[in-house]
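Sample A.
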Amino acid sequence: MGHGERAQQAGNHFISNQAVLLDADEQAARSQQVKDWLEKLHELLYDAEDVLDDFATEALRQEMSSRDKKHKMVGKFFSRSNTIVFRVSMTQKIKKLRERMENIAADRKNFSFTERFLDVKVTNRMREQTHSFVLASDVVGRDLDKEHIVSLLLASNMLRNISMLSIVGLGGLGKTTLAKLVYNDQRIVENFEKRIWVYIPEEFDLKMLTERIIRAATGADNAHLDLDQLQIRLRDELMSKKFLLVLDDVWNEDPKRWLDLRDLLTCGAEGSRVVVTTRSKVVASIMGTSAPYELECLSNDECMSIFVRCAFKEGQENANPELLEIGKAIVNKCGGIPLAVRTLGSLLCTKTEERDCLYIKDNDILNISQKENDILPILRLSYDQMRTSLKQCFSYCSIFPKDYHIPREELINLWIAQGFVQSEESRLLEEIGNEYFNELLSRSFFQDVDEAFNCEVLTCRMHDLVHDLARSVAGTLFSYVNCDTKSISKRVRHLLFCEENLRDKEFPGLLLIRKKVRSFSFPFKVGPISQPFLDILISTFECLRVLDLGESDFETLPKSIGYLAHLRYLSLYGNHRIRKLPNSICNLLNMQTLYLLGCVQLQNLPRDFGNLCSLRHLYLTSTMKCLPRNCLKGLCALQSLTVSRCCNLESLSEEIKYLTALRALYIIQCPALVSLPQNVTCLTSLEKLWIMDCAMFGTSTAEAVKGPKTLQSLVIRGLPELRELPCELQQGTTLRYMLIQQCPSLLALPQWLEGCTSLLKLKLVNCPDLETLPLGIHQLTALRVLFIKGCPLLNLSRKSVELMSWISNISEVYINQDTHVSYNQDYSHDLKIPSVILQRKNPRLGDNELAPWASWHGFDQP
């Protein structure tokens, strides 16, 4: 039997076993036997994926070798011997995999699994129906929220006969409780002729939902009616009546179902309202006719009030001040989620021993036994709704410490490196990964989002309880270890090494047998690492896909790094001692992300750097004067290039023209760089060009560079010598975001700006010599944000009525007081220009939206 037949046979077993994963995952929560079987299957799938990756890597190696004879050295090094050895090795691995697959498939007969070839959502059996009653005196901290929503529901300025308002937030935050307070408020009772409360099951059709609404409104059972009879009955019941309908706990994100329902509800009187509670911002956007009401966490004082009610008998909270102090620490870990406070407070209700309180205080919530309606099971409902690939992405977030500001870009690169992002034809992995991120964000798994100037999410945080959930579902796949760790699961695939100063530390012998680890990282600054420690680390974990040695110090990266065939992500961020990289790193044909920011002593890139044909993201700090010859030519997959703190860099390589897949070019704090290369116009995929804090940029008298038509985001900041923009954008450009900041020598904006009709956001900050805007700037009718600050010579007072009309129609405007603005009062009323145009229409519009981005890229804001 040949390799292809063996692989095909193994693949058939692989698909068959994978098809039952979803059903087995459900049953594992109720059966230890199923759980054990499932763990064996997961282990097998990991190993099978590594073997498939070996085949793909060998195919890529052979392609490289046939493309250019000099790449044959890559093959010899990478295979450790030759093709014959590779074939023998793969034959043995496939044979063992097939045997394991057959055993697992045989064991599967002991269980009644259902094969699911479509990645359907798991149906939650744990969800309980809700009701509309609430004892208002028991609710803490939601009075202002209630008043705000009541005022929205009673507002008379809504023209629709029916409007929808969504209350959105994390599970356990109190959305249903808030809806009950609103539903039972006397003003609501008096203003709505009919109030209807309906709990929404996850899966439903229009007939079922219509039946539920009629039953809630009338008490009658209409199960015997067909859909046409039901819709007639519903319209008769609501016809010309002002009603309030609450749809509680909505999960379904199918727009068509909700549009069909909305059509049925239009028979109500003007002023009718629908309130939706949901964890999903997607649902909120579908259902709402106004901006969703995002429910926030409670304050510590409010949470403490809830805790005291749950944990102590009335009046007894002051009898034991020690327990009360411990209770404050317990409340802090709940992060403002009222259900979490009730969960932990109720656990202490019957316990008076200090050790019981200390146990809860000192343990993560995931280690504390809970009932079905306590916080962790409630949060898990959101996790159970997700498809498998998204579950993997979510659980992987547990590699970040609690309260960590997670960079979106880094997170997506890590997901891609681990193979969690499923490829789709003609779509970039980064685009698909960004969709995954946005879906987790929409499900309230991420919070505290920081946005960049171009409206992209830069960083986010996970609520501590969501982080506990991620750790819970990740199980033993993730493990925190140090030099003193005594035991570790054989299933571990991701190691977080929690130790500082490894200069004199030995590599833990316990880890030497865990050779299948896929990621190794330090969750905080580790400092010096001894060379023997590093040698053993790299030679032990042959299956590594992610190696994060950020914020560590060592002089030499071992040559054995070239044997990590699966490695896709390598970070040496902030290493102040390393001077060169071994040329063997160029044998890593799967490498996708190389993070060298902050390597201030790095003198050069390896000779064969262009062999990294899979490299997608390069972040570079070095002492080079120019990028070496043949450095960029082979990087045909490169998506982003960041050149930061390269203090000696005088020019970028003309080979940049070969980076036709490049979408983002960031040049930061390169004080000797004077201009862009002329062939930037060859970057036919470039969407972002950011040049920041380059003291000499603009001193060159070279001819203006033609910018690509594909550019969407242009940032020019901290260029004191710049007199005109470094590139000339062509007519019909797709430019959407433009920031000019701290350019004291810039006199005028170019006329080609008039042709950027897709521009959405324009910010001019601290350009003291800027005198004029282009005459036709009023043609930028798509502009939504205009921000002008620190431009005292910019005079708008002599501009035309078209300019004033243009400004008045921009949704977010800020023009500070040192800008000369006036207009003819005769036409100000007709144009609806405010008497004082110095205004901030949106208080969220800040004057420094680059700070989080700058922090992640390792440089200081001026």
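Sample B.
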Amino acid sequence: MNLYPQEIEVKLSFDKVKEIISENCLGPLGEEFVDKLNFSTRTDRVNEWLSQTREFMSILTSSAGFPAASYEDVSPFLKQAEVPGSFLDTEQLHEIKAVIQTLGNINLFFKENGDDYPVLFWRLGHIEVDAHLLRALESKIDEKGELRDDASPELMRIRSAISKCQTRARTAVNKILKSAGGHGYTPEGATLTIRDGRLVIPVLAEHKRHVKGFVHDESATGQTVYLEPAEALEINNELRELKYAERREIIRILTELTDLVRLNQEDIARGLRMLGVLDFIQAKARFGIAFDCVCPEVGKKQNIEWKQARHPILEQALKEQGRQIKALDILLTPSDHILLVSGPNAGGKSVCLKTIGLIQYMVQCGVPVSVSEESKFGMFHSIFIDIGDEQSIENDLSTYSSHLTNMKFFLENTNGKTLFLIDEFGTGTEPQFGGAIAEVVLMELCQSRAFGAITTHYGNLKKLADKTKGIVNAAMKYDVKKLEPLYELEIGKPGSSFALEIAGKIGLDKQMLERAKKKAGVSHVQFDRMLSELESEKNQIDKLKKEVEAKDKRLSDAIKDYQDLKKFLDKKKNEVLKEAKQEAARVIEASNKKVESTIKQIQEAKADKKRVQQAREQLTQHKEKLSKESVKPEEKLVKAVDQNIEVGDKVKILSSGAAGEVVSIKGNQVELTLGGLTSRVKLKDIEKISSKQFKKSTEDRVKQMTGIDLNSKMANFNMTLDIRGVRAEEAIGKVENYIDEALLLGYPEVKILHGKGHGVLRDLVRNVLRENPKVLRATDEHIERGGAGITVVSLDE
């Protein structure tokens, strides 16, 4: 036996995981496979299951656009068709047609995308049904599941005759109804009606002999009879014969189609099984996406190295209460293969145990698991758990006796490939003896090299773990000051039960607590107090460590900013000096020319005092002009650095062209609002623009596109813009330019692929689109074609 006890799935809440997966199935075919979902110890099989789910998660979160599928179970119809001479009705054949169409679409999808999804292609990419059957069904049954008029020449002829016959009958009966109404033989507002498939007119009972014909029915009061006029009798008889002929032709066509279904029965049945597998895989993929799960690669050796592990069922329950789950980092290796978890009651010890059991069980069933990507998984050949009260009235077993029965099973069956989980180890009897037995059992389990996790309050077990190789202490962290659990697992040290502290918080009398301390014994109280103090000091050290790390990061950022600013200033300095030298040369040259011109004027004036005085005044004015126009290199440098940018100014990011408004300025860092979000950029990377430029940035970009080759642009235009992994500032520019281009080319709808992640890039895109008056709406893509990972943008044409 590799699983213990028999109800292990219920104890680990795996039954609830199966319920959620089943709810994600699109039909009964997938639900059957969920019921068969089982624990496997074959590494190759588990990895194949996980790879299939991983690939389908990729399909659902990408823009690949998996074809819409029909997952109806038509196997009862196939069974019915086995009888020669039988026929299926149009609705049944319509459902079979939908299934065959689905198989064909899926087959085509994997043929076109087989390289991207090799595992699914190998498993599901070769489902084919005879194309002749699909053509026959499509040619005879329409999209509403009704037999087409042109399903056969004979049916078309019959239905045409029926239509003409109905027109003749209606014309004749209408004529009689009008005549009878004129004589007052019919009730007020009387119209044609049908009884027993024949056209009749309502006639007042007292006048029924005035109209020749046959009575087919009468009203509940008997005041009105429904009469078939004699003139319409022959036409109605002809119509009934045509209806019989139509029915015979329909049966012949349906029988012919059913015979084709019978010939392809095995292929359709095989396709149904594949559809069930596909529905099951997509349901697991939807579960994985909903709970932020991964599909890891499972190794053959036994190992648990999990980061950010979360119990999915508990996480869902907490979300409904508006609370957030605390993820756990769990480590079990061949050198430290048993985890002894201690800590206060209601501190999360049992949840930790169940999280370990559920996630390992899920992964060995091929179900995505709620851990981070860097987690590593191993394969266990057996999982044994002892969780909860196992008291049995039928077997006359107390809780402790049940625990001992479980321990006996564990000791007889555990080995190096076993994962065992024991909750509240040794409880249920006198602590002195319970602790001693638990210590002996723990040593035996350790020597078996089995992997496991145990929760306990016993101090002797904590001491044993501290000095025994293979067993490692762990504690559920606790806020000593607030006396509140933190639900975080810390490996490497034991935890205190905080029994006396919790009792004090509840309000028990202090004198009673002092007496309890004496009863517990000095050594026990001192040990627990030491753990309590250690926990408090550890929490403070962690807090100080985080503060130091934050300061180090700010210091590193400041140093980097300084280095960037210095580099920028050095570059600007060289540019300004070079420009200043060039300007000085121009000034000297201009001055020389002016002096030469003045001397020439003086010489030509032949010492005329008035002319000489005018020339000197012109030279003085030129000198003053040069003095005003000259700018020192340092002033140019300052101007180049700050550009006189102030809070509230409109600026443009040079790299992307995105426009924003300055919120604050700190050193050489500027904080901008871009598309509803805040972003930081360097002063050197922006340029001041006017409010008019800021408001009309979208129109300006559209205008800049005039003059391009629109035919070429339209041919190369991609209906989906991929901005995954792009920085926020660059993404804004890309989205704005893309929308402008789509508007110019006249596209009514485009898509922006930003991925899901934490939703930051999605929110940025939505804010940018919201500010564009040409955007009518921005919605999530259909869940089967990417969901929240893609935004569908509808544009004003």
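B remarks: The longest strand covers residues 471-479. The two ends are 67 Å apart (CA to CA).
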